Amino acid sequence: MQRRKTRAVQCGAVTIGGGAPVSVQSMTKTHTEDTRATLQQIRELADLGCEIIRCAVPTRAAAGALEQVVKGSPLPVVADCHFDYRLALASLEAGAHGVRVNPGNMSEEAGLREVFRTAALEGRKVRIGVNSGSVRPRSGMNVQAAEDDLAELMLRSALECCAAAESEGCTSLVLSLKASDVPTTIRAYRSAAEACDYPLHLGVTAAGPPQLSLVKSAVGIGTLLAEGIGDTIRVSMTGPPHDEVEAAFSILRALGMRPQAGPEIISCPTCGRCGVDLVELVQEVSRRLKGCKKDLKVAIMGCIVNGPGEAAEADVGIAGGKDFGYLLRRGKKARKVDGSQLADALLDEIDSMD
Amino acid sequence: MQRRKTRAVQCGAVTIGGGAPVSVQSMTKTHTEDTRATLQQIRELADLGCEIIRCAVPTRAAAGALEQVVKGSPLPVVADCHFDYRLALASLEAGAHGVRVNPGNMSEEAGLREVFRTAALEGRKVRIGVNSGSVRPRSGMNVQAAEDDLAELMLRSALECCAAAESEGCTSLVLSLKASDVPTTIRAYRSAAEACDYPLHLGVTAAGPPQLSLVKSAVGIGTLLAEGIGDTIRVSMTGPPHDEVEAAFSILRALGMRPQAGPEIISCPTCGRCGVDLVELVQEVSRRLKGCKKDLKVAIMGCIVNGPGEAAEADVGIAGGKDFGYLLRRGKKARKVDGSQLADALLDEIDSMD
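YS: structure for the whole thing
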């Protein structure tokens, strides 16, 4: 897949755009002033592979606390600032690797320009993050026109802000254009991809509870990534940020954009042909493979229809029969195994592989 | 979004392609011969909105049982047949509304042609369902080339089979080209969308355990749908078919392609600005809205940054403050509510709405 060409923007040690791997970010859900809890959460997210962290800076106290957070954080820290440009200035002073501003609610233009000048001087990046909640479609439009218009309005607001930033010498810019509905989000980012060379931070905003957010984010972020659009992603979920990071990596992995950490299980949905308890088998194998770091594709198939074929695409696999199964290794039948021994046989085989 | 133009194919009372809404299908996981369990599962899936059901027909006994299944089923029934063309003939004789054949494993060409002639005579549809497991890339290719080639090989295999079907007068054809990895799946369907006017049945095969499958399916199916490709979908999951149907609808809803049955919750991910227990609030509201059929967008936002704006996009909402919240109705602040009363106030407001 051809990725969209963008300028490269540095966020601490992480490069966004310019051909760098799509990075995963999240946001702390602690109060930023509680630096101990905040740093603890950042370390946990870093352990899960998170690469950039954002912290809310709603007050001067939070901006003040940021200095300690930046010092202790293993990840580059971006300050999320709204309404008051002085919070962004204070965050840059505290050493934040970047700031996120929303032109929809930071209305003091001279102040915003000061933020851009300071960021340019200090070599920090700025994300211009427009949300659908901060721009309003023209009144009297029908739903479809309003949605089209919303995407257009979001983009226009972002690009006007970029022009102001560039005129202040601030060129390390990343854009985001998040709507809470997926079609508007996709439309806004597709237009942005045409209109500029800024790296894009992808996300669906206010995506909702975990299960719903997972689908909305996978469809929205996934579609854009599959079209070559997007340089850094954040899954937004009403739940622990750890789940956001795991969801983000699962989207990237689904598209083959980040290496799998550990084995990938492919398993059939089962049907009337299935002669073994496949759901149970998949659960057991998944459980027993937790922590395994081998980069293997493991196929667990209920029958011979797709079993040998799909197991052949995998490094190792099982194709079930009636109360038995074939153990397959790189597409060849290794041996016939009793139905009760399938998990053990598969795990032994995996153990023996490099 | 512009949907790809296809011919219309009839599956019982359900139209696939030709501008019809994207339909949701699943597959029974019972033994088809157990007609009681099979019909019970079909009825449960129909209640969830499933529109087409497929049953495995691995034996003559299963084909025989199909007659009773077809008679009792509220949904059109498609017989899933592999290896032996006589199973497809017997399924058509049993009254199946369609058959699915896989040219990769039904090698007896004369027999397959007889299936096409019979389907044409009886006015039934045939899905030509190629899986990556049934075709093999040429040896000696590197991984990327093999994946490209696999998508091409799948399409070529499907189109050759279509040509044979057409030459027997069988034109009610639906194609599927499922791989167990998302990029190959996307590539194969994109090529098919260019190459023919057959309706496309989308899915990622052997997608794995529920959480993994949800992401792979949302990314794979979602990307194609967002490009206007796809006429009927099946999410394949190693788990109950009910979860497959719910996942399929959540993908369609994320793209605005099927109406929401009941309220949709949008909620923010929370961050250091949040002054109420939003996760708990979202869970409580979700739980209490179960079964509500009102077509409303409900915003539950932790703070005022995106709160009023995004709550304004919604019909009703909460924007949290410090231990209190604003109740919002169609974008206007209705009243200030104590932090402990947020769920009650929101649900009262929803109750009062048409």
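YS: worth flagging: Chain B is about 40% helix and 20% strand.
IM: good catch. Also Chain B has two domains: 9-254, 264-352.
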